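FAQ

Q: What does a record look like?
A: Structure on top, sequence underneath. For example:
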């Protein structure tokens, strides 16, 4: 199992579509279960995910693929990459998104609107590097490419990491829970007691006797 492959499901999609590797080889390389890879091949799992080329990404060589296609028992090796650790800088404002990825942002916005409407627009703006105007256009279907926009997980198209996405979704869920609790408490205070809802009793003056 490899821990160095980015976007494992998207990588599995590419390997299934472009090689004759066995499911267990793809699963081993991408860190997935063989049944999950089979589900991807049958479009039961990860439907709509675009394949990511591991060769172009520098994680796999054509020679390794050839070895794997010739022998189903062969385990693919990840290409060793030189890693340079740079000091992390605190990010401010919206995330910068490479030009090649910017066309995918409406799909990610659509995914948020359909699957996590509780996430505020401001969080989406910072997470995937979009604008409030674009979010409104996708929401109102006034975007120039509305007919082609489909919900796609932002992690699978490289707009954010799974950890970043999970944190945003968790924060939004917690905020919604707090808001719902405050609303329920306010509603409870406005409810009338049983005494207040019962109408006042009407008394009938008894008729006097006439002699």
């Amino acid at each position: 199992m490899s821990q160095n492959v980015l976007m494992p499901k998207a990588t599995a999609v590419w390997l299934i579509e472009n090689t004759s590797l066995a499911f267990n080889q793809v699963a081993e390389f991408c860190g997935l279960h063989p049944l999950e890879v089979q589900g991807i091949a049958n479009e039961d799992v990860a439907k709509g995910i675009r394949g990511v080329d591991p060769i172009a990404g520098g994680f796999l060589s054509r020679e390794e693929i050839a070895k794997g296609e010739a022998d189903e028992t062969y385990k693919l090796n990840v290409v060793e990459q030189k890693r340079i650790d740079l000091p992390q800088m605190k990010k401010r404002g919206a995330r910068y998104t490479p030009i090649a990825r910017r066309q995918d942002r409406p799909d990610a916005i659509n995914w948020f609107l359909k699957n996590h409407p509780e996430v505020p627009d401001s969080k989406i703006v910072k997470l995937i590097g979009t604008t409030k105007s674009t979010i409104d256009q996708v929401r109102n279907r006034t975007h120039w490419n509305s007919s082609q926009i489909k919900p796609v997980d932002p992690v699978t198209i490289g707009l954010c990491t799974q950890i970043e996405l999970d944190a945003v979704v968790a924060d939004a869920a917690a905020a919604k829970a707090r808001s719902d609790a405050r609303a329920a408490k306010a509603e409870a205070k406005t409810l009338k007691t049983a005494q207040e809802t019962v109408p006042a009793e009407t008394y009938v003056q008894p008729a006097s006797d006439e002699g």
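Q: Is there anything notable about this one?
A: The first helix runs from residue 8 to 18.
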